[in-house]
Design goal:
Elements (H helix, E strand, L loop, with lengths): L8 H15 L10 E2 H9 L9 H17 L3 H4 E5 L6 E5 L4 H7 L1 E2 L2 E2 L7 H38 L2 H44 L1
Helix pairs in contact: 1-2, 1-3, 1-6, 5-6
């Protein structure tokens, strides 16, 4: 694990969704627009999390912008307005409708669902997909945070502690390789068993 581990675009979208939901937690309609600067601050400086700096922060900011406007499903997830006086851009989660659900479930120019499907079915499928993606992306986001924290600990730790980290990583690698070897052995044993069964049938 290293500091070069980056959030994927999908994972960043999940982080943005969570930040918008948290920002609007006290609003009755949960649909207030959040200034982009505040939204970015919530992403880059999570409470209790590591503070990003330099190139690492710049890479994450590019990923942040790409997740908002650069992905095929960005328009289905996020809605923006521009303040005419300050030119400040504000964001919120796009209200979920059959139309936005169809956008979310599309790939390129071809929808993944038939247009004649009932709106209720589209909404249910969309909610299921969002829920599954949230769960998967949250795990990846947590792993990202843990990786950054561990990497920072390793950088500031004493040589003895770093040596313990290296030993743990080598041991973990050995366990993974051993697990793969055992899986291969199990496959071979099953294959031999099938051959023996076939011979007994032929006899």
């Amino acid at each position: 694990m290293s500091g070069e581990y980056e959030l994927s675009s999908a994972n960043m979208q999940m982080a943005i969704i969570t930040a918008l939901e948290n920002a609007n937690a006290t609003c009755p309609d949960n649909q207030s627009f959040v200034p982009q600067s505040i939204l970015w601050q919530r992403i880059a400086e999570p409470e209790g999390g590591p503070v990003l700096e330099g190139d690492e922060k710049e890479r994450m900011y590019r990923c942040f912008l790409a997740a908002l406007v650069g992905k095929k499903n960005s328009v289905a997830l996020f809605e923006s307005i521009e303040d005419p006086e300050t030119s400040e851009i504000r964001w919120r989660l796009r209200p979920q409708t059959p139309e936005s659900a169809a956008m979310y479930l599309s790939k390129g120019d071809k929808p993944l669902v038939r247009q004649e499907e009932p709106p209720q079915q589209i909404e249910e499928l969309q909610k299921t997909l969002v829920s599954l993606r949230r769960q998967a992306n949250k795990l990846e986001s947590d792993n990202h945070q843990y990786a950054m924290i561990i990497d920072r600990i390793k950088r500031t730790a004493s040589p003895e502690v770093r040596k313990n980290f290296e030993f743990f990583e080598s041991l973990y690698s050995f366990i993974e390789q051993f697990d793969h070897s055992m899986s291969d052995i199990e496959k071979h044993v099953k294959a031999i068993g099938k051959k023996i069964d076939k011979l007994e049938i032929d006899i």
